[in-house]
Amino acid sequence: MPSGFPSINRRVLTVVLIVALPILVLGARYVVETGHTRVRDAEIARLGQVADHIASSADAYVFRRIVDAAVIARVPEIRRAAADGTRQPFDTKTTEALDQQWQKDRKVPPALAGIVSNAAARFLSDVVKQDQLYREILVADRHGRLVAASQVTTDYYQADEGWFTQALDDGRRGRITVSDVRRDESADVYAFDISVPVADPESNELVGIMKIVASSQEMLQGIGGLQLGSTGQVMLIRQDGSIVYSRQAMTPGARFFGADILKERLTASDNDPQARISFRSRSSDGTDRVVAVARSRLHESFPNLSWLVAVSMGESELLEPFRPMVWSLMIVIGLTGMAVLAVALWASMRLARPAFDPSLDMHLVEHPKPPRIEEG
User: Fold this and answer.
1) HSE (CB half, 13 Å, CA atoms) of 298?
2) Are 20 and 340 in contact (CB under 8 A)?
3) Can you tell me the distance from the alpha carbon of 314 to that of 31, in angstroms, rounded to the nearest whole number?
4) Domain ranges across the chain
5) How far apart are CA 20 and CA 8, in angstroms?
6) Helices 119-130, 76-87: inter-axial angle, 10-degree rounding
7) Predicted local confidence at residue 225, as pLDDT
């Protein structure tokens, strides 16, 4: 009768491991790869949704301001001021002289005092006071001469300004134009210009251009105020990779860290503008980041506004939800290993048990000897 705990049969253990290990390894690999891919795709989709939301909010903000500007441009006082100015004969020398005097003295010449005191100017001044998002509003007649302003401007003649020539278009109907966001260092704000044609109140012909300098503070709050974990970043960038706005401190002319890869992805998605753009790139501090990009719809109406919203996060933080799955997999592997050893031990015990068990109470039956046969 064997004594002590039976040892594991090596042959049995080898057979069990040959059967179990490939299944265990393949299963673990499948779980890790599938889990990694699903978690990464889910997190990238989440970043893409955030980027889409911010891009839509920025578009809605700009379009709201455009509508507001178009409404202001139709106020009777504004239209009359532009029409009256356009009817005045245009003299190049007189206009240039007044413009030089304006810029030299940094104040309105007496001959032009009505520009900041007429009915249109008073209305514009009230608008700026009531809504702090409007930094400045001015109106120029069809010749580019200033006819009304919410405050004293830097110059009088506006026909040589880009916003005026672009909005004047072909001189018939004019068109609405929107400038890119720029930083006003003196006011410490980000702002953009909206230029709107002004029509004659009677003939409805183009008689001037109104420009509104609007703060983009509200639009950029969705970028500056959004917090995505500890490594999340949101940037408003252009298609050339230059940064329009970022919550992080940046130097003038700074570029997006993934500008080169972004350019390749944009080129590849030219045939499908609605395609989601996502990629992996390394930031300037050496951190691997996953980036999701959403396009602004403003470029469809204003080609100069090629804005993109880029939402990025450190790859290690992005895959943080996957770590519990890895620990669960390790536990499963450990339990599977214990199960394999248990099966091998059980099989070894079965094989070590003798075919005949002497402990069974069995009695032998004695049979009588056969009779002895005598010879002869």
Assistant:
1) 29
2) yes
3) 23
4) 1-61+227-352, 73-216
5) 17
6) 140
7) 75
Element housing 252 (H / E)? none
CATH 3.30.450.20 fits 73-216, yes or no: yes
- For 182-193, how does the pLDDT look when each residue is reduced to its tens digit (9 = 90+)? 876 655 678 999
Same fold, 1-61+227-352 and 73-216: yes
Count the neighbouring beta carbons within 10 Å of the beta carbon of residue 121: 24
Q: Facing residues of 145 across strands?
A: 157
Tokens representing 52 are 């889409």
Place of tokens 């379009």: 63
On whether the pTM is more than 0.90, the answer is no
DSSP 204-220: --EEEEEEEEEE-HHHH
The secondary structure element, H or E, covering residue 171 is none
Contact between residue 111 and residue 97 where contact means Cβ atoms under 8 Å apart = no
Write the single-letter amino acid at 237.
I
CATH architecture of 1-61+227-352: 2-Layer Sandwich (3.30)
**What's the sign of the alpha-carbon dihedral 155, 156, 157, 161?**
positive
From the CB of residue 105, how many other CB atoms can be counted at a distance below 10 Å? 9
Average pLDDT over residues 308-330: 78
